[in-house]
Amino acid sequence: MSRGKALWVNILGALALVGIILALFMVFVYAPTEKEMGIVQRIFYFHVPSATIAFLSFFIVFFYSILYLFWKKDRDFDIISASAAEIGVVFTTLVLIEGSFWAKPTWGAWWVWEEPRLVTALVLWLIYVGYLMLRGAISDPTRRATFSAVLGIIGFIDVPIVFMSIRWWRSIHPVVISPTKMNLDPSMMLTFFISLGAFFLFFAYLFIQKVSLERLKDDVEQLKYSAGVGAAR
Amino acid sequence: MDGFSELWGLTIFAKATLFGAGRGADKNLPFLFAVYTIIWIVLFGYIFFLARKNRELRKEVDSLKGSLGAKKNSK
C-alpha cells in the first residue's frame, strides 16, 4: 500500500472510530428507553448494523465469486471474496452473541431452537466458517479460489432466507424493518442510522486492511515460488 | 473481588446517571454491559490480529526479497 493510500486508510479508520464513539453516545444518552423491552433493547443499535454488515460482506463474496468463476480468473476477485468472507464471519459471530444477550432477558433463554431467525443465522455462520476452513485446507491457489467461489455462491442462498425467516415462518423475533416502514421512534431511528453509518465506515476500514493483507500473502506465495520454495501457480 | 465490586459500582452509577433510577433497569444492565464489552473485545481483537499479521507478512516479504536479491547477486 502506498503512503498516500495508507494515509487515506488511516483517516478512514479515524472517522470510523469517531463514528462509533458518536454512535455509543447516541445509544446510551440520546436514544430513549424502549417501553416494552427496557434498556436491553439498546443492543438493537449494534445488533442490526452487525447483521447488515455481515449480509453485505457475504454479498461481496457472492458477487466476486461469480466474477471469478464466470468472467475472469483474476486473483484479485478471490482476494476480495476471501477478505469479505472473513469479515462477514466476524460480524455474524457478533450478531449471534448480541442476539443471545438480548434473548436471555427478553425471552428467558440464551437460545431458542424453534426460532427460525436464530437457526438460519447459525447455519449462515457455519457455511462461511466452512468457507474459511475450505480455503485453509487447499494449498493450490487456483483450486482454492475455484472451490471457494462455488461455496461463496451457494452459501449466499442462506442470506435472504435469514432475512425473510421471520416473515415466512412463525417467529418471536422482533420485526423492526418492514417493506413500508420502520417501527421506530424518530430519535431511535436517528440513533440507528448513525450507528449503521459508523459500522459501514468501520467495515470499509477493515475490508481495505484485510484486502491489503491478502495481497501481501499473495506476494509471499509468489516470492516463495520464485525462490523455489512454494507451490507452482 | 475488589475489582469486581468497583465494576459493579460503576455499573450502578452508569444506570443511575444514564437511565435514571427507579425504572427497574438494574436486572438487565449487566446484559447490556456484557454484550457491549464483548463487541469491543471482538472488534478490537480482530483489528490487532490484522495489524500483527500485516507486520509478520511484511517482515517475511522483506526477508524473501533479501534472500532472492542475494541469490541473484551470487550468480
Q: What would the keywords be for this entry?
A:
heterodimer; A: 233 residues; mainly alpha; Four Helix Bundle (Hemerythrin (Met), subunit A); globular; B: 75 residues; 0% strand
Task: Walk me through the structure.
The complex is a heterodimer of chains A (233) and B (75). Chain A has 233 residues and is mainly alpha-helical. Chain A has a single domain, classed as Up-down Bundle (Four Helix Bundle (Hemerythrin (Met), subunit A)), CATH 1.20.120. Chain A has 7 helices and no strands. Chain B has one domain (2-74). At the A-B interface, helix 3 and helix 7 of A face helix 2 of B.
Summarize the helices and strands and which ones pair or pack:
The complex is a heterodimer of chains A (233) and B (75).
Chain A: H1 3-30, H2 44-70, H3 75-107, H4 116-137, H5 141-155, H6 158-168, H7 186-226
Chain B: H1 2-19, H2 29-74
Question: Care to give the gist of this entry?
Answer:
The complex is a heterodimer of chains A (233) and B (75). In chain A, 76% of the residues lie in helices and 0% in strands. With 233 residues, chain A is an all-alpha fold.
| Bulk shape of chain B | rod-shaped
Strand content of chain B: under 5%
From the 3D structure, determine the CATH topology of chain A: Four Helix Bundle (Hemerythrin (Met), subunit A)
Structural class of chain A: mainly alpha
* First-to-last CA distance of chain B: 66 Å
Q: Sheet with the most strands of chain B?
A: none
Indicate the multimeric state.
Answer: heterodimer
Category by helix and strand content of chain B: mainly alpha
